Amino acid sequence: MHDYPLPGDIRESHHRQGDDLLTAGLGLAGLRQARKPAVDDPSRPTPRELRRRAIHASWRSSADLDPDGGFGSVYGTVPDIPGREYHAFASLPGARACHRVLLQAPDHFDHKRRCLVVTASPGSRGIYGGIALAGAWALPRGCAVVYTDKGAGSGYFDAKSGTGVRLDGTRAIAGEAALEFAPTVDGTDAGIAIKHAHSGDNPEARWGDHVLQAMDFGLAMLDRAYPDAAPFTPANTRIIATGLSNGASAVLRAAGADVRQAFDAVVAAAPNVLVADGGRAFYDYTCEIALWLGSALGSPSLIEVAKARHGNNLPDDLAWSETLADAGHLSSASPEARSQEALERLLAAGWPPAALQAALLTGDIETWRGAGAAYAGAYLRCPAGGLPGDERFEALVPDAQGRLHSGGAALRASWWPDAPGLPPSLGVVPTSLVAGQPLIESVLRLQALATGDDADACALRNGIDATAAALPHADLPLWIVHGEDDGLIPPAFSSLPYHAWLHAHGRHPICWHVPHVQHFDALLGWPALAARYLPLLPYAYAALDAAWMHLEAGQTHADDKAAPIRLPSRPRAGAPLSPTHLGLVAPPAT
């Protein structure tokens, strides 16, 4: 019995003999290669080639695969896992757009410990986005894994060619095949439509439902994969939900909506979670740091960190500060004083200094602006071709002379496997950049939506309010893992208020905060970051291990600590990662 409707069209594929579930036959050595797996015809890649590219991109976006980073030796493993996959487009009642769901069913499924791990993609990534966390932990253990892209993903629709993405990842013209995203467009000048930004659904408001529908899909596909053991239900199958970043927020949202109490445990890593009684919305502080950090990086406490990334070719913070001053946002007279004033604005808003340093090393204004534009589009339920400030996305690539032109079939074919789900990337850029519009004007427009009182600003805040988490049931075993130095989703705005809120309402989560950990494991191959930071994934794996052991032992789950457990990590300072750096020789006590 399922609470959510099951898809009608389901694609089953087999993955054995050099094409496994976890690495698509690439193995750890292939995943470590920066070069994308080759395709015979870039304009018409095959479903198998696209899948391999998508898995490669998903791993490299979430894991530190540098040989000195410790994956495969200190933590993590990628054995050959043969099995089957079941793909479908699932639809929630009332939604305009679908979300992708995928079950990976290993041949060596453990029938004695029937287990389904449920996950959602981090960020706005495609369906394999959670493979480095959920797949890498669950599949070697004999668990099945079900994924959802939670209404986001990289199934971009190109209005000019009228094409989108089929279930198998190849492209087709709208009307000639079922597509991942096929919005109604008025003419061919709507640019590139992104499901997260242009579906009209505000998908973030229903992330929990996406996860729960994926769980139902996973159980139904387990019936199909292992008919002799059917039926698979929450009563006879262990169900663990886990996710990273936006995926972590999605599973926490699902935990709050899980009226059947189907989840046996939840593990959330670096969750972008909002509670109504505290914390801050991702849109608000993303616009805030996009506005102020360009000026603040010239302050004495940040200038050396900025140089560690940019060298002496720092962004033009002087011009940025002058523009903010001209617009009345900064009052200091000198560039030095304006930099300090901008920094003090961020500190007064609650930004920890360590998070600002990590943000300088791992982010940039254009990326934050792109995220802000897409999230604003979602909250305002903008149609294809429309974002705040008449912004839209276009596919434009330079030719040999540097002139921009529309990307061709090869570029469009690369989006589904390689794109992160939000521009700017892979030739998809905001039109304001092409028009030469000052970046700061776009950032100020987005900031005005966060702080204004006109109709659009009120509608945007209503959209954000719809994304707040609800309380999980009182007895749910729940682990939260977060890096103290996270510069994208600072714990002070997300996991800390969520943890306090749960305790205030009689819940007992276990929360690990890890010094010297930021948000992006994938960037740790860069020496400047490797010297400062540790990966998050080993702590997420350790939390999943602790959840598993807890369920195996049948222990009572309770943690009355009002503050998170701070783990004894220490930076590797350029040395190869070792267990002593992580402080995880044994899983932390609960």
UniProtKB/TrEMBL annotation:
Keywords: Hydrolase
GO MF term set: hydroxybutyrate-dimer hydrolase activity
GO biological process: butyrate metabolic process
Signal sequence, start to end: none
Gene Ontology CC annotations of this record: extracellular space
Superkingdom as given in the UniProt entry: Bacteria
Pfam families: 3HBOH
Region Disordered, annotated ranges: 570-590
Record-linked Gene3D superfamilies: alpha/beta hydrolase
Name this polypeptide is given: Hydrogenase
Species assigned in the record: Acidihalobacter prosperus
Phylogenetic classification of the source organism: Bacteria, Pseudomonadati, Pseudomonadota, Gammaproteobacteria, Chromatiales
